Amino acid sequence: MLLLQINTTACDGSDVFMTWLMWLLGAFLLGLLLGWLLKQLFGGNGGGDTTDYSAKIRGLEVELDACRKDKSKLTAAAAAFAAIPKVDDSVKDDYTKIEGIGPKIKDLLNADGLWSFKQLSQAAESRIQKVLDAAGPAYTVHNPKTWAEQAKMADEGKWDELHKWQDELKGGL
After folding, report:
1. Three-state SS for 46?
2. d(Cα 169, Cα 173) in Å, to the nearest integer?
3. How does pLDDT run across 141-157, given as a tens digit for each residue?
4. Domain boundaries, the chain
5. From the CB of residue 132, how many other CB atoms can be counted at a distance below 10 Å?
6. Of 163, 101, 158, 161, which Cα lies nearest the Cα of 132?
7. Are 65 and 102 a contacting pair, CB within 8 Å?
8. Which ranges in 9-158 belong to alpha helices (H)?
9. Cβ neighbours around 156 below 10 Å, total
10. What three-state secondary structure class fits 15?
11. How far from chain centre, in Å, is Cα 158?
């Protein structure tokens, strides 16, 4: 095993170990003094960070509670929205096959969410009348009295009976 030997002898034969040791001790003490002075000048408090975070934590907890309440309200609203039955507009029956309904009235009924013969057959006459009344005076002359019955026959595929009945009707009445 090789031992590390440090030669502390100067060229002139004198021992310089104590000299180097004094220089190192002086540098260490100077560093300590300089650190203490800088701490005094720039405001070190000596005990680390003693900021009281309890008030900030309480404020953040209040905000968190408010967010949780908002989340529960939004979740309830989303669930209520999801529970609303969706209009099945994939079935777009041609309402012009109903006596008394033309293309413009068909568009009005579609805009009100009525797309299929089944929906029209289940719609209340008052609802259909409101759609017509809202469209203006040109549509108030139409009477939707038989439209639900005609739509039911069309939905059930009773086209022959529907055509026979429509031959007897005049303007949907």
Report:
1. coil
2. 5
3. 888 899 999 999 999 99
4. 1-45, 56-85, 95-168
5. 19
6. 101
7. no
8. 17-42, 54-83, 103-111, 117-122, 125-135, 147-155
9. 13
10. strand
11. 47
